[in-house]
Design brief:
Blueprint lengths: L2 H8 L18 H37 L4 H16 L2 H18 L9 H26 L3 H9 L4 H31 L17 H12 L5 H27 L20
Helix pairs in contact: 1-2, 2-3, 2-5, 2-7, 2-8, 2-9, 3-5, 4-5, 5-7, 7-9, 8-9
Main location: membrane
Family: Belongs to the binding-protein-dependent transport system permease family.
Pfam families: BPD_transp_1
Length: about 270
């Protein structure tokens, strides 16, 4: 079997397209690269949707924690405390068995026991808590002069938030939020090693890397391949977030603009 045939058979296997059975022998480098890459589809799916949806909840949580209303403030504080204070692996475990219990009550919750929805909800809530704390710190760091200038120009309410508060908060929080995005994509490797099962062996990249490591008794091939894929994903995130960071800082003088940099440290 050529490498092209392997790509056609296993390139989309993780989402149910292509060869149904996993290879049982002849674990070539091409098969390992293709199948682990196929599993990355799930990692990108979980990371992208959790990050996009969590961004808006994180903004609401940050505003809630900084609100004068004690109910909104305490609800945001406890939300952040619970999801930052407990390990993500345990959150997956408890969420799966909670959804399993709800499934026995009503078939409506059947989809929640599948990783595509249940694990996504856990990642969404987890990143919202971490990002909410980042945004809250940035909210407190907004210069008072900016807010006073907004008041002087007659900005108030939604207009003040949209034009002054929110853009400044994002600009201050963006470097730390970029790190959270990277950590979130790395955390997606826990999905199929927690309570959520890989239906018909359709797992993520780590699932397939572990499969090859078990079958070949050689972890020094599949795991470096897995690391290579995540390094590529990290570079893409740094590039995209760097463009957004440049956009957020476009009004600042060139010499004071914050830039996202990746420095290769050969010696720590």
């Amino acid at each position: 079997m050529s490498c092209w045939d392997t790509l056609m058979d296993y390139g989309l296997r993780s989402i149910g397209i292509g060869e149904r059975l996993l290879p049982r022998d002849d674990f070539t480098l091409c098969k390992q690269v293709v199948l682990i890459g196929s599993g990355m589809i799930w990692n990108v799916y979980f990371g992208t949707l959790a990050l996009l949806s969590g961004f808006f909840l994180a903004t609401a949580v940050a505003l809630g924690k900084g609100a004068a209303n004690p109910v909104a403030r305490k609800a945001s504080e406890w939300f952040i405390f619970v999801f930052r204070g407990s390990p993500l692996f345990i959150q997956f475990f408890f969420a799966y068995f909670a959804f399993l219990s709800l499934k026995s009550v009503s078939p409506v919750f059947d989809a929640f026991t599948a990783a595509w929805l249940g694990a996504l909800i856990v990642l969404f809530l987890n990143t919202s808590a971490y990002s909410g704390e980042i945004f809250y710190g940035a909210l407190l760091s907004i210069p008072k002069g900016d807010m006073e200038a907004a008041d002087a120009y007659g900005f108030s309410g939604w207009k003040k938030f949209r034009k002054i508060t929110w853009p400044t908060m994002l600009r201050l929080a963006w470097p730390a939020y970029t790190n959270e995005a990277i950590f979130l994509f790395h955390a997606t490797t826990l999905v199929f090693f927690s309570g959520f099962p890989a239906w018909q062996q359709r797992g993520d990249a780590l699932y397939y890397a572990s499969y090859f490591a078990d079958k070949t008794f050689n972890p020094f091939v599949p795991y470096p391949i897995l690391a290579g894929y995540f390094i590529l994903v990290t570079l893409v995130i740094i590039g995209l977030f760097g463009l957004i960071n440049r956009r957020l800082n476009r009004h600042l003088p060139q010499d004071v603009r914050g830039r996202l940099k990746m420095r290769m440290n050969l010696i720590r």
